[in-house]
Structures are given as C-alpha cells and as structure tokens.
Design goal:
The protein is built from 19 helices and 15 strands. The protein is α/β, with parallel strands linked by helices and 499 residues long. The chain has helices spanning 5-18, 20-38, 40-49, 81-97, 126-142, 149-152, 167-175, 186-191, 198-209, 249-255, 266-270, 308-317, 324-338, 358-378, 402-407, 423-432, 434-437, 461-469, 483-493; strands at 72-74, 101-104, 116-117, 122-123, 164-166, 220-222, 230-233, 262-265, 281-283, 291-292, 295-296, 342-347, 385-391, 412-415, 476-478.
Length: 499
C-alpha cells in the first residue's frame, strides 16, 4: 500500500538528513585526487610513473606542448673535440636531409666516450654509445662543467638551413628534467628548468639511448646500423650495394666476423615511408666518419648536385668557425703579444699513436725552421724567428727535447699560451650563451635575469691556440695525422684571421 504523501515526505527528509555525513565524505574523496593533481609535486610524481605517450595515443611524445609536432635527431659524439666537430657537421646534414631538428650536444671530455675501431670492426654498440654520452652529460651537470658545442662552434652560418635545439632545452622540455645546473647565465636558467625527480633523468636516459626498446611506441627510433655494416649515402643509384671496404678473410676468421658493409641511402632508409619517419626522436649512435682504403667509414655524403638545398648546406658545413669570442682572443694575442710575423707549430706528443712518433714530429719542425733561416738570409733580415708553439707536452717536461734546444737558441723566440691567459675570454664566451641562442627557445620564458649558480668556466685554451695559429703568416707545421692539425689547416684555408 502506498504511503501517505505526508509520511513519504517525512521519510525522504529524515533519509536525506542522515545521509549528509557519508555524502560529504564521498565528495571529499572525489575531490582529493583532483586537488593533489594540481600540486606540482604530485603531478611530477604521477608523470614519472607513466611512460611517455606514443604519438598515436595522446598525440604528443614528451612533456612540452611547445614541442608537439616537431621531430628531432640525436646522436652520440665521442673521442676528442675535433672528432666531435666532424660528427656535428654530419649530424647537421642528416637532420636537414630527414627534415628533423638537430639536438646539439655538450662538449665531451677528451675520450670520455670511445667508439673503438671501424677498420677493425671493433666498435661499441650504438645503444651503449648513446647511454655513455648521457651518463657523461650527467657527470658534467653534477660537476658543473657543462658547455655546449654551440657555445664553442659558431652555428650561425647554417642556422637558416638546419633547425636546432640545445640539449639542455630539449631534455628539460621533452623529459621534464631540471637542467639548470648546466647553466652559466640567465637565459639558460630561464629555459632549462624542470622537475627534480631522479626518475625524470632515468626515463630520459632510457629513451634517448634506446634501452627501452621504444621503436614500437612511435616515440624513439634507435638506429642500430653502425660502421660495421653500413655506409650512409644520399642520391646514389647503388642503394644496398657492397661497399669497397670489407673485412678481410684473416680478420673474419680471427675475430669470427660475419659483417658485410653495404652502402645505404639514408633518405630511403630513414625518411618518408620508413619505420623511422613517424618517430618523434631519431637516435643515431656515432656519426663520425673518415676515409679509409678508398671508402668512408660510415657517412659518405659530400655532394648533392641533384638537391641544391643540401648541396648549399654541404658547402657551408665544410668549415664551421669558432664563435667570435674565441677568434677575437686568438687575434688579440697575435697582435698584442707576438706582434711580428710568426710560425705556428702544433706538436702532439702524448696522446694515442703520437707518443710513439716524437722523432718524425720534431723533424717536420726542424725542416721548416731550416727553410725559414735560408729565406731570412736571402732577404737579409735580422732578428729571431718568432714561433707560436702549441703542444700537449708540459714545459716542465721539455728537458732533453728539441723544445729545450730551440728555447735557448737565440735564433728563435718562442710564445705559448696558458689556461690562465684566456680566463677573461672564457667569461665573455659563457656570458654570450651562443648555444642557447642558436636554436629553439620556449615562447614563454621565466625571468631571464634569474640568478644562477654558474657552472665552471670551460677550458678554451686549445680553441684559442687554434685561432692564434690561423693568424701565423710565416706558415704552419702540424703533427701528421692529427685532427687538430687538419682543423687549423682548414681555418687557414678559409682565411679566418685578417691581421
């Protein structure tokens, strides 16, 4: 039987009154997670627990909405500085070919990351190389010694042809990791902030190195082809053909090598229509390459007559100068300290193969000095021959070497540089923040005058020495086989110093 209306109303009223407490609790329970989500700490924690969303999921790979739609290229530099510059040039060409934004890495300590030997088919796996570069970059961060390749090498000649982003901006925007410990000045601090959870760094390491096996996610495509199996080409008609250089039978038998090196078109393999095309990040191992027995060890793209844009880039990328602060420091030393026409001698004696070839290294300088002496006599000039010397052998160890002989010989006057001589130039260099200004910057910046706990000043002695040598009007003597010598010769060929 139906209850009377009055009794029904009273029942509903009493039920509602008794339900206030549990209803309030339920509402609070619903609101609590939403409130926590608004807090940055909980938000960072939640993000750290979730994998990066694949491009086919939420439509964005990474954390920053400003990077949405962009596709990037990352690689693993290694060995000495000159090798790292060569890899940077190759990476710029690859980024332009594949229409990707180049992630510009830090300057690595000399041989902090080692490749191995391509001619001997004994190299580190690309995954291991990428992980090693990340680990060393984090070491530079912890020790506050970070400096970008863009801070040292002037990237402005190719800025209009290659999109770039500094590694610090990329990691803080894409991974959410705080990179402010890599900064010297305010702009870097303003664009390199992020979370502070260890998991941010761990996840980023896994993604950038390819350790997560993230090819299938559409987020990262880790390139596993290296110099044991591949020589990258472009616009050749021999895609897939055997390369000229192959492991010989003795090496195959001794090392149990089964590798076959093929020439592959990089655009066909990693460009439109490939599995790599849709990935937000294309991650190479090393991009270092050098000539060997009629072939290139890995990257053989030196001309492109069919593609005028790439052809123009290849011409510009052949020589990338140091940033103006370094060039100015070298020129100023030549003008104010040496003042006279001088010879530059670059003698590498301690590193790698060079420590076993002192005699041949010194003999090249002796021959050059004899030639200058004869020229001086013919021209009836008086006064010593001025020599700027750059060497890795400390002056304390010159005793009983050719350096000691010419240092006390009145026919010559030696000039050298010390790291303490270039500290002021290093301060100007880091304050300029060329690395940050050479690529993408977020549209919304925090206060760019924000105080930083600045990183240590970088050691720029080698770069300034090269700059001085570019000004040597009496010529240049370089160590055979040294990449530093090749760098100086390229600078002199391009007439970068005009006294």
């Amino acid at each position: 039987m139906d209850l009377p209306a009055s009794r029904n109303s009273r029942w509903r009223g009493r039920r509602s009154a008794r339900s206030h407490v549990p209803l309030l609790v339920a509402v609070l329970l619903l609101l609590l997670p939403a409130t926590l989500l608004l807090s940055s700490a909980y938000s960072s924690l939640l993000r750290s627990l979730l994998p990066f969303s694949p491009s086919g999921g939420t439509g964005r790979c990474g954390r920053s909405a400003e990077l949405e739609g962009e596709r990037f290229l990352w690689y693993a530099p290694h060995s000495g500085f000159s090798n790292q510059v060569g890899e940077l040039r190759n990476a710029a060409v690859a980024a332009a070919l594949l229409n990707r934004t180049l992630v510009v890495p830090p300057v690595l300590d000399h041989h902090a990351v080692a490749l191995g030997s391509c001619p001997k088919f004994r190299v580190s796996d690309p995954v291991d190389l990428r992980a090693a570069v990340w680990d060393h970059a984090m070491q530079l961060l912890r020790e506050r010694r970070y400096v970008s390749m863009g801070d040292i090498i002037d990237l402005s000649p190719v800025k209009a042809m290659v999109r770039m982003i500094d590694f610090r901006v990329f990691v803080s925007s894409w991974c959410g990791a705080d990179m402010r410990s890599t900064c010297y000045s305010g702009l870097c601090c303003a664009v390199s902030g992020g979370g502070s959870l260890p998991s941010d760094y761990g996840r980023c390491r896994s993604l950038l190195s390819g350790l997560a096996g993230s090819e299938s996610s559409g987020c990262v495509y880790p390139v596993q082809d290296d110099c044991r199996t591949t020589v990258w080409t472009y616009q050749e008609n021999n895609d897939g053909a055997l390369d000229l250089f192959q492991p010989d039978e003795e090496l195959k038998r001794k090392k149990k090598i089964s590798y076959v090196r093929r020439r592959r078109d990089i655009y066909k393999a990693l460009g439109p229509g490939s599995n790599a095309e849709e990935a937000t990040l294309l991650a190479f191992g090393t991009l270092f390459s050098g000539p060997y027995k009629g072939s290139e060890s890995y990257f053989d793209i030196h001309e492109s007559p069919k593609d005028h844009k790439i052809h123009s880039l290849l011409e510009k990328i052949e020589f990338l100068p140091f940033v103006p602060e370094i060039m100015a420091a070298g020129k100023e030393f030549a003008e104010s300290k040496i003042k006279k026409p001088f010879l530059c001698a670059q003698l590498r004696l301690l590193d790698g193969q060079f420590k076993n070839h002192w005699r041949s290294t010194f003999s090249a300088l002796k021959e050059k000095l004899k030639a200058l002496e004869l020229e001086t006599k013919r021209n009836k000039n008086s006064g010593p021959v001025h020599i700027f010397l750059m060497t890795d052998l400390p002056p304390a160890n010159w005793t009983k070497t050719y350096f000691a002989d010419i240092a006390k010989d009145g026919r010559y006057k030696l000039y050298t540089l010390k790291e303490s001589d270039v500290l002021q130039s290093a301060e100007k260099l880091m304050a300029a923040e060329h690395g940050m200004r050479s690529g993408f910057l977020p549209k919304t910046l925090e206060n760019t005058n924000k105080d930083c706990d600045p990183v240590q000043l970088p050691e720029i002695l080698l770069y300034v020495e090269e700059s001085v040598c570019s000004c040597a009007s009496l010529g240049f003597v370089g160590t055979a086989g040294s990449t530093i010598a090749r760098s100086i010769e390229t600078m002199r060929k391009n007439n970068v110093c005009k006294l």
